[in-house]
Amino acid sequence: MEKRTRKSRIKTFFRENAVVLLFFTLFLLYGLATVKDYGVSTDEVIERDSSLAAYKYIMPSVEHVMTDSVDFTQVPPLKEYVYRYYGVAVQLPMVFVEHLFGFRLDIRKVFLMRHLANFLAFFAATCFFYKTCRLFMKDRPEREAKYASLFGTFLFLLSPMILANAYYNIKDMMFLSTFAVSFYFGAACVEKPSWPRLTGLAFFGALCTNVRVVGAMTIAVCLVLLFIRSIREKRWKPAFWKCIAAAAMCFGFYFVMTPIIWEDTVAEIGNLLNTFSNYIVWYAYTFFMGRYILSTELPWYYLFVCIATTTPLLHLAGMAAGMVHQGGQAVRVLRRGASMTDNGWLKIALAVNLLIPFAYVLISHPVLYNSWRHFFFVYPLLVLYALDGLLWLGGRAFAAGKKWLRYGFCGAVGGCLLFLVIWIGLNHPYEYAFFNRPTLPFVNHYFQKDYWNVSHYDLLQNACDLDKRETIKVWMLPFETTSSLLRPEDRARVVHEERQELADYIVTAYTDYYENERVAQYYLYDELKSVVVDGIKLSSLFGRAYDISSRTAFYRLGQGELFYNINGMSWTAQEQDGKLILDGSYPALVAADKIWIQDPDGQDVSDVEVWIRTEQGQYEQVSMAPEYSVLKSDGSGYFTPQAVSGIRLAVPLGTHPNLHCTVLKHRDQVGEAATSQLRVVKRAWSERTPWEAVHMVDGEEETRWTSGLQEQGIYAQFDLTGPFVIRGVHADTGNCGADYPRNLTVWVSMDGENWTDAGAEAVDPETYLFAPVECAFVKLEVGACGPDVENNWSVFELDLLTDVISSPSNGS
What we know:
Shape: elongated
Largest sheet: 17 strands, mixed
Strand content: 15-25%
Structural class: alpha+beta
Low-confidence stretches: none
Number of strands: 26
Number of helices: 22
Oligomer: single chain
Distance between the termini: 106 Å
Helix content: 40-55%
Mean pLDDT: 88
């Protein structure tokens, strides 16, 4: 009889909750199907390292384990680990799974397992959020409460940014998930305390506090409210002891979950609280409202703007309405002096848990990074307000008795939900880039985009799919994080190239407007693919497409004299019609199809006209345009691939005292680049970091040689391809302006053994002029340095200078 009754209860449960079970089953299947689609976020590697350090402390037997995916010998002791106060209790089960497999799981599987665990935690939080909604709907009829709670849970899932973060954001979303569960138990205890509920609050509250110490707030708030309610209802003694027991259980659970406090508990808890009271790991600049702001100096409204711009409009409207509705109810209760109902106490718990974090932000101005991810945990509370607000608005619309109002409200809400579902489907797996419609026109220039480089993975995998060579050199930051998710066979082919100019591919994500964040060597690359959401470019894959044929750097120095670097070309100059006409000739035909002009002083180069001289000696003008619209100081011109015999530039007089002209050849073009035949320096050498010396003469203006320190006697030597007459040197320090050589002496020689001081005089910290001298060797040597000189000596590009000779114009 009892068995039949149990079966009957089970059938009744499934029959009455079929829609709810179907909803959660479909969401679970969706999560399992899409968990492999997301890239790895920047913090995931750090979080895994933190969990390994804690696991090594708990299980000392693994300290000598070394496999392809983990090396415990390199994992520091927990007491010495820089992030030792990060709680990793929710992550230790994943390390245990790795242990079960002998720590031989491929690193791709390790991170996919972590993505799965993160999603499953969010799935559990979603289930408990549904239960929280049911708790708040207790005063409604059963059927209405069930479907209203289901609607609220659907709202909870349909914030695209939150949904995407649920896979890879293992810190903030784990905190949201544990917070949602602990809030349910806390609210349930406020409504009606029982030992199962108090135990749940203690356990999940401790787990939430382990993830982030601010999680203790929910435990404290709910227990205090429970005690206040018991006083008002004259049953404070049993409630008091229940609160004490719950707090004790919570501390016990927290102690077990947090290995760093196992020894010297009081001191370590003090250190932990001090660390996270105003947590500053690094002073980063956050891109916000069109400018970079130091993380410690963000305006008070930063958090509120981030929430308002990345949350769907339906949610925002519901939140506003819910706060107005509940605020009005609170005022009416206070005026009437009515006794508080269960639902009233729950609303107080909701309001206090939401007000405390925002009040803390306004009062203490804590450091915040990357949008509002540190405050994701308040999202369940905000959705509870949104649910209340939308139900209130819906109730008023239906009570009005007008069909158009009812249909209009249902159509608006349904249309918003349908839009979000379709948007998520179309933009998967880049939902984290969601901005609501009114914000979209401002996103490119005002707000952060893919600040965690999650889109890197798809682009890196695309490079592997495009290029089947045994070795692919990629420049990308961070490299280890993204490459860990590649298939093992692809990961074995991809090599991290630290120097952009040697990379086959560049992968870069954008925080600022993408045109402001060009990669340093962009003019050598073609953009092969980009990730774009709502017209917002999140990241790009660049493939190396060009080789440098020649590079000429012009400098106007001294008494208006114009110099250029010796590179195998010969240049003449004359003034004509208010312009300086510069004619350059190659000693032999050069294959080319692109010209890049740059003003290193940042002046707009759109007034510089460019021609190429064909094999037949005819001049053809090249149409120049900024490669990126915001870079007016850079201009590129493309022309039909051909053999070029010379270049002509027309520069308005009085402009561009410094100008660089680089001629390039596409790698698909037939013919050799002219770099080798025009080369003046056949060997660059320095006793300091000699392996980098080639960067001083490679034609790449973003590569450099650096001495590592600066002291008297450090030198850089250049062996030339033959005797040349030079009149000066320009040692470009690029963006390291303080790394100029102190008291530099320029030595010249014909045989590399007998050296003569050229008598160089400094025109500026980078440029030295002297009387014309013929030489085959040049040596630059640092002189006496004061004790206060801490800078290196850096050279991005060395230019050996000669002057431009005036000549009649050949006509254009």
